[in-house]
Design a protein that fits this description.
- With 213 residues, this protein is α/β, with parallel strands linked by helices.
- The chain has a single domain, classed as Rossmann fold, CATH 3.40.50.150.
- The protein is built from 6 helices and 12 strands.
- Helix 5 links the parallel strand 7 and strand 8.
- The chain is globular and about 45 Å long.
Length: 213
């Protein structure tokens, strides 16, 4: 079930011998694309925001103060992790889509973070199609997409420290190979959304903002 927030103001070995991969250190990245996401929503009266990551108190405060918005948090990372640990990945697409109870044209802004890096193509397409339907006309969707193959062993809490600054705080995840998508594949996945901005960060991550025409 979604967490809902409404605002009125603007190294070693594990116990079973399995290899334990150390978490990377926290880091900070700069995103002009995220600033444009905020600028798209700012003129809207009481916009509705959907965050697909875990609940982060600092983010809830930030969005509440800057956008006077209603926030829904759907931690799809936790859903994904639970399915992987139970060996139920064949139901992944249906489960993630079913988790989103919002109607069509109900959301002004969607934060995907790097969720699509952890999904196979079919699941990613199913989720993207659902998100596009939920987005209102003129609404914005922000996502981060890795551009290099890697074995992902952690998720990341993206903590908003400013309109151009994000703190990346890693936490443990079941290992999975990143699904690397070409830029044209990402754009096609989210059709008919239009690409407003797309920047390749120093972290080899494509920072992308879509908008619904």
């Amino acid at each position: 079930m979604a967490e809902r927030f409404k605002w009125s103001g603007r190294k070693g070995e594990g116990a079973a011998g399995a290899r334990v991969v150390p978490l990377p250190a926290e880091s900070v990245t700069t995103s002009k694309v995220f600033a444009r996401f905020m600028a798209t929503l700012a003129p809207r009266s009481a916009p509705v925001l959907l965050d697909l990551g875990p609940v982060v108190g600092a983010n809830i405060s930030f969005f509440g103060e800057h956008l006077a918005c209603k926030i829904y948090v759907e931690d799809l990372y936790a859903e994904l992790e639970g399915l992987r640990r139970r060996g139920e990945t064949e139901t992944l697409a249906a489960t993630l889509v079913a988790r989103l109870h919002h109607g069509d044209d109900a959301i002004d802004g969607i934060l995907c973070w790097d969720l699509f890096d952890y999904l196979d193509r079919a699941t990613g397409q199913a989720l993207a199609t659902r998100l596009v339907r939920m987005l209102r006309k003129g609404g914005a969707l922000h996502g981060l997409f890795g551009t290099t193959p890697a074995e992902l062993t952690h998720y990341t809490r993206f903590i908003v420290e400013g309109e151009t600054t994000l703190r990346l705080r890693p936490y443990a995840a079941s290992p999975v190979s990143r699904e690397v998508l070409l830029t044209r594949e990402i754009n096609r996945m989210f059709e008919p959304l239009q690409v407003v901005d797309s920047v390749l960060l120093k972290t080899s991550t494509r920072d992308t903002l879509f908008r619904k025409p």
